[in-house]
Amino acid sequence: MTSSALTKTGRGMRLSEFPPPNTNLYRLMHTQIHTASLCYHFMRAGLMGRFEVETSREESLENLSQFSFPEYHEYPLPARTVRNAKSGEEEATKHLQSIAVSLESWQIREMGPMGVVQEVDMFLTMMLYFHGKLKTTGSESWDNIFGMVQRSRYDKRIIPCMFFGSAQGCLNPACGYMHKPAVVSSIRRDILDDRRKTLNKPTGKQLAKEKMELWIEYVEQHPEKVDAKDVEKRIKRLPPSSRKYCANPQCSIVWSFKDPIPNLEMCGRCLWTFYCSRKCQKIDWPRHKAEPCAPADEIIENDALWAPNGKRKGTELDIIFE
Ligand SMILES: [Zn+2]
Ligand SMILES: [Zn+2]
Ligand SMILES: [Zn+2]
C-alpha cells in the first residue's frame, strides 16, 4: 500500500481515525488487510507461475508438495506444504475432475474469487495444473476468472473485495479491491438461488445413506468379489434430483419420482419437508423443529443456517455414521 493510500482515504477520512485504534474493529480491519494481501499475492504469484514445487515421492498414502516462492518479492509469502496427487497424465485428468467437482460444490459466496484463494491447498493444486501439461485448473469458469485477472495485469480494482459483502463489511477505508454494490447483490442473488435449489435436493447425509445401502446390497449379492468400480457406476446412475427422501434420518426411505408416489406427509408449517408417514413426522419433530421448521424464504435468507460451502448446517455427512 502506498503512503498516500495510508493517510488519505476514499471517504476523506484518515485511516488512523477509523476504526479507532486499539479497538476490536481496528484489529479486525488489520486482519482483513493482511488476509486480503496474502490471498491477492498468492493468486498473483500462482498465476505468474512464480513458485517452485518439490514433490515427495515417498511410499506414503499421499504425496506432499512443498510450494515456495523464492522469485516472488512483492509480498512475503510463506512456503506451503499441500497434499496433491501429481503423477502421470491419466492421474492428472482424474485429479482435475475432482477439482472441478469440488469447485462446483464450493460456492465462492460473498468473498468472491479470493475466497477460493484462501483455500490455499486447493488453489495451489489448481495452479500446478494451470501451468502443467493440461493448462487448465480443471474448471472452465475458474480458467476464465484467472485469465481475466492475468489480462488485467493483476489489477485489484477488478477483483471483488473479500469483505465487502460480509456481515461486518470491509473495514478498510482505503481498500483497493472492487466495491460494487451491484456485483455484491448479484452474487447474493446467486447464493439465495443456490440455497433454494439445495432445499429441494437430497442432503449429503441422505445420499450417503443411500450409497451405503447400495454397497451393502452389492456385497450381499456378490460376496465372493466386490468390484468397487461397478458399485460406483450404479451410484452414478441415480439422478439425485428425481428423488424425495423421508426427512426422518432414521428412516430416509427414498422415492423415485417415476414410481407412483405414496401419500407423502408434507410438513404443513414449512412446506419443504416430507415424511413417509405420520409416525416418522412425529419421531422427527424435535430435530426438524430445531432445523428450524420455517418457510423456505426465511431459511434461505438466514446466513446463520448455512455453511460457507453452501451446505445447510446440520445436513453434513458425519452424523449419519454415529
Ligand atoms: Zn474492501
Ligand atoms: Zn419415514
Ligand atoms: Zn416443517
Automatic annotation (TrEMBL):
Domain MYND-type: start-end pairs: 251-292
A Pfam family the protein falls into: zf-MYND
Key word Cell inner membrane present: no
SUPFAM superfamilies: HIT/MYND zinc finger-like
InterPro entries attached to this UniProt entry: Znf_MYND
Classification via PROSITE patterns: ZF_MYND_2
Molecular function per GO: zinc ion binding
Transmembrane segments: none
Entry keyword set: Metal-binding, Zinc, Zinc-finger
Superkingdom of origin: Eukaryota
Protein name: MYND-type domain-containing protein
Species the sequence originates in: Rickenella mellea
